[in-house]
Amino acid sequence: MYIKNLTLTNFRNYSEQEFEFANGLNLLSGANAQGKTNAAEAIFFLCTGYSPRANKDKIVIKNGEECAKILGKAQSIYGEVSVGINFYKNDNKEIYVNGLKVLKIGELMGNIHSVFFNPSELKLVQESPEDRRRFMNISLCQKSKGYFYALSRYNKILSQRNNLLKEPDTYLIKETLPIWDEQLSKEASKIIKARNEFLTEISPIAEEKHAMLSNGKEKLTMKTESGYYGTEEEIAYALKQDLKMGLDRDIRLGFTSIGPHRDDIKFTLNDMDVRVYGSQGQQRTVALSIKLAEAESFYNHFGEYPIMILDDVLSELDKPRQRRLMGAVEKMQTIFTATHIDRSVIKDKPARRIVIENGKIKSVKD
């Protein structure tokens, strides 16, 4: 899969700009704060309806404007697809797929696939379990609308269960909770099983990618900490029993203490916890290895690679790792952003160079 073109209207610092991308290596360069990352963000928005940078959609609207628009056309082995998103000041947005308005964000998922990485993605390794769950959710939602809707239902049921746990009437809680637990376990089992399969798939690939990037000096392992395995029925049964056994604890805490909303992933290098003992350079290489493994997972599922978006990654790697990274992405369309890209890193690889200045394309060279 590759994105053919992208049109931005009043998006971030862009007034009106159209990009034409090559089906291969694309280098977006320019000084800081010129709009390179904004273009990369827009592509990811078209894939997921989600920004890795903005908490509220209206933030992307250019100052002084009422509406922002992004439109992209992509090519896959299944044909061409176009996706457009309009953003409004009231935080509403409209989504169009092939010119038709879709009312649910779940219908956006799976039309254009991408993997996004920039320095802030280090939180995948460094920070809270929520960031690692978000990584799994974004990847799995792009692969499966069923996962997206199961996750949405689970979160709604979880919220209702937590509200019930705050009730002062303990008798009411114990009488009503089994109804919620039945529904919660059913949706949770779909999420947990999908995550287990995802991690089982990408763990050996991430290990291989990390060995490549580190030149074989370190061994990466990934392990889920959900604690539930088996079929959906087996997972649902085990979780339902644990919810029942933990009822008094949950009432005391006022929230649900177990389930996929508490999942985590543990990363180790040579059997040492990367989050605790890894250097920033090691943590960055681990996060990048995981993203490369995620791209391979898309290929395994769909028979084609996703769009790889690497925002300001090269500046954080030494030259040997930059060259090895270039080799790792040569089979997929890649959008690199950087203030400067050393010619020795690219060597003779064909690439489209797009220079951006103050929200405009200054030059394009193939």
How are the elements arranged and paired?
Elements: E1 2-11, E2 14-20, E3 25-29, H1 36-48, E4 67-76, E5 79-88, E6 93-97, E7 100-102, E8 114-117, H2 123-126, H3 129-143, H4 145-165, H5 170-213, E9 220-224, H6 232-245, H7 247-253, E10 265-269, E11 272-273, H8 274-277, H9 280-302, E12 307-311, H10 319-328, E13 334-338, H11 343-346, E14 351-357, E15 360-365
Parallel strand pairs: 3-13, 3-14, 8-12, 12-13
Antiparallel strand pairs: 1-2, 1-4, 4-5, 5-6, 6-7, 9-10, 10-11, 14-15
Helix pairs in contact: 3-4, 4-5, 5-6, 5-9
Question: How would you describe this structure to a colleague?
Answer:
By secondary structure, this protein is an alpha/beta fold. It has two domains: 1-113 and 306-366, P-loop containing nucleotide triphosphate hydrolases (Rossmann fold, 3-Layer(aba) Sandwich); 122-302, RecF/RecN/SMC, N-terminal domain (Glutathione S-transferase Yfyf (Class Pi), Chain A, domain 2, Up-down Bundle). Helix content is 43%, strand content 24%. It is built from eleven helices and 15 strands. It has helices at residues 36-48, 123-126, 129-143, 145-165, 170-213, 232-245, 247-253, 274-277, 280-302, 319-328, 343-346; strands spanning 2-11, 14-20, 25-29, 67-76, 79-88, 93-97, 100-102, 114-117, 220-224, 265-269, 272-273, 307-311, 334-338, 351-357, 360-365. The chain has a six-stranded antiparallel β-sheet with strand order 2-1-4-5-6-7, with helices on one face. A six-stranded mixed β-sheet has the order 8-12-13-3-14-15, sandwiched between helices. It has a three-stranded antiparallel β-sheet with strand order 9-10-11. Helix 3 crosses helix 4 (145-165) and helix 5 packs across helix 6. The longest helix has 44 residues, at 170-213. The chain is globular. The model has no long low-confidence stretch (mean pLDDT 94).
